[in-house]
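Shipment paperwork, digital attachment
Item: protein structure file
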Amino acid sequence: MIQVFKTPVFARRMFPRRIWGFSSSDTVYLTFDDGPTPEMTRWILETLEATQVKATFFCVGANAEKHPELMAEIVEKGHAIGNHTMYHEKGTSVQQDEYLESIKKAANHISSNLFRPPYGRMPKAYEKRILKDYQIVMWSWLSYDFDNSVSVERILEKAEEQIQPGDILVLHDNKKVEDRVKYLLPKLIDLLKNKNLKFDVISF
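Attachment content:
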């Protein structure tokens, strides 16, 4: 299976109302999906603090409900948060009303005007109602930290080759990727700093 790290132009054109990246001369936007999780979130926060990097966390409502202390810590440390549905539903697998209700339930635990659809999958027809309350944030570079068939060395090679100013990068904050992210994240940050790139949160 071919891994597409860099989001193709046609995907951006198909969904022009979604945010795929930003105009910037020197900044990238590091994001983490699926948290907060006791196994990973605090380690990520400590790593970001040690490297003086800010990031955006797209959180699952059920996890945010279980771990409000981690949600508070994310915000206290100067990072941004976003809504990633209540139960990490794939938008192409549930009806629109059910999907919107999941976002609404997650909002009880995640105060943000940012939304990212889990798996990046959501029918275009769902956008109109979501855009009343949220900016829909996608990504321009996917790390494949979740795919064990892709070595972390290849991920870093692709990062060196492909990541450019304005890119939104995706990693994950869950138990399944723990070992890979703990190896990958510090090296990725170093690599991007060596490319003279800065980091910022996503905000509107």
